Amino acid sequence: MTDLIPAWVEGRLQPVEKLEAHRRGLRHKAVSVFVMCGDAVLIQRRARGKYHTPGLWANTCCTHPRMDEAPAACAERRLREELGITGLALSPREQVEYRADVGGGLIEHEVVDIFLARVARRIRVSPNPDEVMDTAWVGMAELCARTRRDPSRYTPWLRIYLEEHAAQIFA
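^ that's the sequence the OP posted. Answer follows.
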């Protein structure tokens, strides 16, 4: 099955194969989720088999919605598929847009619906090894310091979220 995502082509939203959207740097829809416990955020290390940014640390969950999939439904689906997480109350944040080189000739030009979930205690996760190789809970100040100190270990979008959009995501 081809992985079709909603991308803008010639001014209108159309289904485009995911890899092709990244090769062409097309503006397309995305979803990102941050799960927080106090000031700690759950981050994931992307599996080595991912077609871009393998082995890099990212926010809790990020993906592309299917053509007719609502952003909140997409966020819930990917939390379950990537980390085995269900039943969280997701709070929508402002939509953000970014463009980033993710290596290998691929560009992410994403219009991202961001969701935040707050949990009372650190939840247990069951990572899908095809998607996630590791997870960690990291205090927000420490995560910001780490991404500045060693940016090559973190995905471009996580760095962009923390550097440019933290106030609207975490407020």
